[in-house]
Structure prediction request, 452 residues.
Amino acid sequence: MPLNDHDLHNGGAGFPSSSGKSFNGYFDHPSGLSFRKNDLLDARARRMFETTAMACAADAYPFQIPLEGRTGPQVRADGHSMLMLSSYDYLGLIGDPRIDKAATEAIAKYGTGTGGARLLTGTTDQHVQMERDLAAFKGAEAAITFSSGYLANVAILGALFGPADRVIMDSLCHRSLTDACRFAGVQLQRFRHNDPDSLKLEIEGGSPGNRTLIITDGVFSMDGDICRLPEILELKKAYGCFLLVDDSHASGVLGANGRGTDEHFGIPTDEVDIWTGSLAKSIPSTGGFAAVSQELAIFLQHGASPFIFSAALSPASVAAIREGLAILKREPERVAKIARNAEFLRSGLRELGYDVGLSETAVIPVILKDEATTGLFARRLRDHGILAAPVLFPAVPQDSARLRLCVTAAHSHTDLEYVLEVFAKMAPQRSFAVGQPVHRSTNGSHGVRAHG
Ligand SMILES: Cc1ncc(COP(=O)(O)O)c(C=O)c1O
Prediction:
């Protein structure tokens, strides 16, 4: 799927917006986007300005598309109803009336903010109960929450590890874990993605450090594959290491009850020293958690900067987390539906000749390799009423740009059939030629989608 500069500059003509107007993200005057001399910006910024201006000129700037209402399988954007195909709302709970009611009641009772950080005046009885709920969900002794999953990782590394320690991390772990290691100043080694032999070599090589912490994602956020937890645990035990698993994309998705990677493999939760995760994916709120031993939780409450020096989760967020966990417990069939939907879409895309990489979960990458092609592909999907996020370097390695599709329990079979129909039109064997408009579907209600 080659793409050249001509295609890009010509893109505005080839890719009319579904609403008939150009979409330029936050840029009111894209033609005026230029790199003025500014001592705060360096060569990286110049490149960013150039590629952003090119994307805007092609009416294909793919990021920050403002949603005009709540997200779910259908969203409103650019004046149209579209099929959302890149939301982390795996359980399909955003907009569930029970969640909305819980959040609204929490605002009525507690207000919109707590007015403080957790250690001082920011803890309500609901925060305490939420952490008990999370510990019970994960089957851990205790849980502690932070204002995001990113900060949960930063908090743990900063509070428990330092320059005398070393971390050995899977090379495809989430950026928050890399940043957490950098902020904590630990010695960082990486092992080849999902390769226990490489992990073993790294443990045996390098300087041993005071303590060694192995880090992996449970489900990898850009590839949708599952970590090899049993083999990692064997190495952890054999070499006396500690283990942190970030289960952000596994919580609510893996295991019969959605408890995560441990449930998937039938491994006792406490074999992993530290579980972290986001509360803004399957659990439809904001926040992040760590599930740990009781001693660790108490230590973190008094030693983790993001707990002490940053505002507590808002009461509405807390209520949404609690209700989300309660619904997950009552309705495990949602977890099974995610797996069924993912399998249907993944196998359909494979049959069409798309490279879906290593995906085995709700995250399904469509690897197109070239960045501009990926951006334009996403743009053309929007013409068909499908919102799918392109993921580019540095979020993924160079030359592996992709659309990152996420299925949820709220997608219907018809939704996914429509997606396959559109991807069939743009399939590689039909020599997807960038620059030519795709014929819009005339199939019933799924043309340029006009849901809701
Ligand atoms: C594996 C992983 N960890 C942590 C995070 C950060 O979570 P949050 O968005 O709650 O900060 C993400 C976000 O996508 C993630 O994919």
